[in-house]
Predict the structure.
Amino acid sequence: MENKFYKLPELTYGYEDLEPYMSEEQLKLHHDKHHQAYVDGANALLKKFDSRNSVEFDVKADAKELTFHVGGYVLHKFFWENLGPASKNGGEPTGTLAKYIKKDFGSFERFKKEFSQAAASVECSGWAVLTLCKKTDRIFICRLKNIMLM
């Protein structure tokens, strides 16, 4: 039996629940096909790493490809976990996140504008993410590309 370390996570909402922000068709495409491709790629590469003595193994290329697939898997997993039905979610953040946004961006509108600009400026395969720097106690919008988080 083949080991599958990575599995496509189940969504905690229905495919139609993100409308009007993401269509059912878009969600199915990105979850069932795109995210599944990262799962399949990561598992195939891990199998290759496990049998590196018996197959052609290129450390530079295979490590780069593993980073791409595992990074894509993890970032998509975070993405799905941070979405929810429009009827139950949305609007301005509250609590700690709202306080950070007010402190570091001045307003939620300014944050949305900068986040949208960062996301639109990502080239090829990449992400815009909101991060907390504990050393400075500030939030920042960063662009990520080809990272591996495990």
Remarks:
- The chain has four helices and two strands.
- The helical segments are 24-50, 59-81, 95-105, 108-120.
- The two ends are 24 Å apart (CA to CA).
